[in-house]
Structure formats: structure tokens, C-alpha cells
Amino acid sequence: MSARVLVVEDEAIVAIDIADQLTQAGFVVVGPASSVAKALKLIEEVGCDVALLDVNLRDETAEPVARELRSRRTPFLFLSAVSRDHLPSDFSEEVLLAKPASAAVIVAALQSSIAGSPRR
Amino acid sequence: MNIPSSEDGIAVVNILIVDDEPKNLTVLETVLDSPRYRLIRAESADAALLALLRHDFAVLILDVQMPGITGFELAQMIKVRKKTSEVPIIFLTAYYNEDQHIVEGYDSGAVDYLLKPINPAILRSKVSVLAELFLKQRQLEDANRALSEEVAERRLVQQKLGELNDTLEQRVLERTEAYKQAEQQIRLLMTEVNHRSKNLLSVVTAIAQQTAASSPQEFVRKFSSRVHALAVNHDLLVKSLWRSIDAAELISGQLAHFGDAVGRRISVDGPPIRVSSAAAQSIGMVVHELSTNTVKYGALSGEQGRIEIAWEIDNSLSEPVFWIRWTERDGPPVIAPTHRGFGTTVVTKMVEMSLDGETVLEYSTRGLIWKLACPLKNVVESAPI
Q: How many domains does chain B have?
């Protein structure tokens, strides 16, 4: 079964492209969600096996989404232009992919996140 | 005080000669004749006092025996006046040659006492010494005054220097503080610029990946044109300090390559709206894709076609709605495209996602129509927190 990836990204053009690339790589894309509210709604109503989170969304950060995913033991990784010291304090150990990242890198990171997940 | 000088530069001193007998004064003038002396005659005590008020004297030569006030009495009057108390007096007399009178003469402040007939050489010598003393004293006073002035000036300079130094130290402190703050600001700015550059590179990468083309040449042309559209938007955003862009300016910026067709064949009309930087990027890209399309297939591919671009704010609903419409007319017959390329994605899915809105793309027989409606708050700059 294909893994479901929640994509949280507020830059529409980037979100569309990532969704495209992930679909081509065999993932089922959930979203993309451009805000915390939309992301939380998708987690609740659709669910996902792994998530790819941009850190800075329009005028908020993805921290509440990361917190929700952690409480559900769903693996996730950050994809952002910010440096590690700008990550929410208790998420500084999480995987952080630097923007711009190639599709191959994102796909590999997502697959290793799913493989390393305690749920599997 | 200035010392009067003769024409050839020798210092000249005033000497007051007092005698009721003009003959005696003439004798004194003869004896003391010198370019170094200016002799002033006084034939009475009153004339002598008057002269003392008007001039400074190096020496007074007084006849002791005068009708009315005696030389001694005159000397006493001279000694009690502050201005004249220091002037040395030489008494001359033919009769008062006893010790008693000599003592009386010295008591009244005389420095010397000569008996007539006077010895010209002795008188000249004594006067010369006193004149010299007078000049030396004046020079000393002048030097002293100059020195005091210099000391005062130096003190003033030192005080000013001290004040300047304090000001300088204060300014150095202020500058250092300002510099530190500026450095901090630069660091923050660099972080922000880095962040934005990376995001922009992500956008550029996404555009590159989404740009489909049948040949490398076509790819480069399409991709460059899209990157150029981003650059135009960036210029406008930087101009407005990355805050917001006027809607008309944003749209006109993307139409600039049409030159004078704007206004003639393209109308741009709507109320003034400050579009947020995020919304500006999406709307700018939409206008770019629509104008690329219209030149190739739409109204501007023929000679007659026109384009109307209009936007409006609808306040009739509980939440204000922004809508914008691109209407093409009188162009060549419209043929709906066979496949949906990146341009279509930009004017529909991308802008819908970005502004949380809805779009309509109609290939009507009269010309292409594109419409977008979205919450106004997603287009305008959010109120500062």
C-alpha cells in the first residue's frame, strides 16, 4: 500500500511541485495544506503515515502540527529555508531538509522516516 | 598701556616741569632737551594738576617755592590720588636748602631733592634713570598683562578642550552603541535575506520542474520568461520595502512589455488596493501566464483584440470578497487547449491554493475569460499586530 504523505507548505507553487514529485514517486499526497488549521483538519479527517512540514507558514509556524503528529507517533520531517536554530525549541533534533531540496532527497528522507517509525 | 613713541621709534616719556617762573622752565627745557622726552610746562599748581589728569608722566620736576600752593603741598595732593601716587617727584629749590626742608620733601613722597643752581649733568642723569625706570615698569606691566591674558586664554582653551573631549567620548560611546545595533540589524537582515533567497530558489526550482517543453530551447525561453516575471514582482516588492504593492502597479508591472498597448488595447481598472507581498507573487504570476497566453493564442495574437482587466471589492457579504476578472474580446476564434500545462495550473490551482479562492477559466467564443474570487483578507496586507 502506498504511504500517505501530509504536505504542509504555504508557497502554493512549491506545494504543487512537491505534491507532483511525491505522487510520481508513488506516495499518496494528503493536502497540500497551507495553514496549521488546514493541516490539523487533514490529520483528523484523512490521516497520514508521514508528514513533510515547512516551518514558517504565512503568519504562524508549523509547531502545533508537529506537536499533534508527535502525540500520534506519526513520523515527520521539516523542509524549510530556516536554519536549525530557528526550529521550535523541542523539535531541534528532528530531521531538517534545507530548501531548496531535490525530489530524490525528499523521497529518500520520507522513506527512511517511515522505515524508522516505531509503528512499523 | 601704550608708550608714546617718536617718529623714529624711540620710546618717548612725558616729563612734567612745574615752576611759576617761565624763565626757569625754559632753562629746564634746555637742560633736558632730548628726543626721548616730551616736556610739559605748568606755571601753577592748577595747571600741573590738570596736566596730570590728561597725561601719564615718568617724572615730575617741581619748584618748591611757588605763590599760593607750595611744591610740597602740590606733591601731597598728587600722592593721595591713586592715578598719580606712583609718579616720582624731583623737588628743585634755591632757598630751602636746610635738612628740615629736605625731610619735608621726602615725607611728601619725593624721590629726590635738588638744590639750585642745578647741575645739568646730575639732573639729566637722575631724570634719565627715572625715565628708564618708568619705561621698564611699563614694559613689565605690558608683559604681565600679556602673560595674564595668555594664561586666561590657555585656561579657556583647556576648558574647551576638556568639554570637547567629554563630547567626543560621549559620541564615541553613542556611535559604538549605534554601530553594535546596526551590526545586529544587519545580522537579522542577512538571516532574513538568506531565508527569502532559499524560498525564492524553491519557487524557481518548482517552476523549472513544472515547465514542460518540447525542446531545450523552448524550455529555456519559457523558464526565463517565468523567472523574469518573478524578478519584476521582486523589484516592485523591494520598492515598497516588501510590505505591499498597489494592485494597479502590480498588474501594470507584468504588462510593461506590451508598451503602448496598455491603455489602447488593454484596460486596467479597479479601486486602489494594497496587495500583500505573498498575494502579489501569485497574482503577478497569473497575469504573466495570461499575458503570455494572449500573445500566442488570445486577443493580442491578432490586430483587433482587446483585454479588460478589472477588480472590485464586494462588501455585500459578511466577509468582504476580492474579485478580479481578465476578459479578452475581438480576438481570433478561441480554441480550448488540449492539455493543461503549467500556465493553467498557475491561473487555477496555484492561485486558488495561495489565496484560498475560486477561479473560473472559460474559453468562450468571444475570447478567454478568467475570474478569481477570494476573501479580501487573503489579498491585502494583514493589519500589523
A: 2
Could you tell me the domains of chain A? 4-116 (3.40.50.2300)
Domain contains B95: yes
Q: Which structural domain, as residue segments, surrounds residue B262?
A: 215-378
Same structural domain, B245 and B355: yes
* Residue B306 · residue B330 · CB < 8 Å: yes
Residue B69 belongs to a domain with what CATH number? 3.40.50.2300
Tell me the pLDDT band of A120, cut-offs 50, 70 and 90: very low
Phi/psi region, residue B193 (left: phi>0; alpha: psi -120 to 50; beta: rest), is alpha
* Inside any domain, residue B193: no
Q: Is B280 exposed, middle or buried (0-12, 13-18, 19+ CB in 10 A)?
A: buried
Interchain contact B210–A (C-beta under 8 A): yes
The C-alpha atoms of residue B224 and residue B226 are separated, in whole angstroms, by 5
ipTM of model: 0.88
Computed over every residue of chain B, the mean pLDDT equals: 87
**Interface with B, mutate which of A7, A8, A9, A13 (most B CBs under 10 A):** A13
What CATH number has the domain bearing residue B366? 3.30.565.10
Span B158-180, pLDDT tens digits: 999 999 999 999 999 999 999 99
- Tally A–B CB contacts below 8 A: 66
Angle separating helix axes A63-71 and A36-45, nearest 10 degrees? 20
Q: Is B198 on the interface with A (CB under 8 A)?
A: yes
The reported pTM is 0.66
Mean pLDDT of B184-188: 92
* Residue B257 or B220, more confident: B220
In this predicted structure, the answer to whether residue A119 has a pLDDT above a threshold of 60 is: no
